[in-house]
Amino acid sequence: MKRILSVVVAVLGGLLFAQISEAKLNVVATTPDLASMAQAIGGDRIAVTCIGKPAEDPHYIQAKPGYIVALNRADVLVLVGLELEIGWLPALLDQTRNSKIRLGASGYVDASVGISPLELPTEPVTRMMGDVHPYGNPHYLLDPERGKTAARNIAAGLKRAAPAEAAAFDEGLAKVLTQIDAALADAQKLLTPFRGAKIVTYHRSFPYFADRYGLEVVNTIEPKPGIPPSPAHVTAVSDQIKQAGVKVILQEQWHERRTSDLIAKRTGAQVVVVPVQTGGDPATKDYPATIKLIAEKVAVALK
Amino acid sequence: MKIVLLCILLALPAGVSFAAEDSELDALKKQMLQMQQQMQQMQDKIQQLEAQKTAPLPAASTPALVPAVAWSPSQPITVARSGNAYMNLSLDAMGNFGWSTAENGEIRTGHHAPLERGFSLRSVELALDGAVDPYFKGATMLALALGPDGETVLELEEAYAQTTSLPWNLQVKAGQFYAAFGRQNAQHAHEWAFVDQPLVLNRLFGGDGLRNPGAQLSWLTPTPFYSEVMLGIFNGIGETAASFRNEESGDIHGGEPVDRRLRGPQDLLFVPRYACSFELNDTQTLVLGASGAFGPNNSGQHASTQIYGVDTYWKWRPVNAQQGFPFVSWQTEAVLRRYGAAARTTPDDPPGSAIALPGETLTDWGFYSQVLYGFRLGWVAGLRGEFVSGNSGAFDAESRLDRIRVSPNLTWYPTEYSKLRLQYNYDHREVFGNDHSVWLQLEFMLGAHAAHKF
Question: Quick one: pLDDT at residue A146?
Answer without folding.
Answer: 97
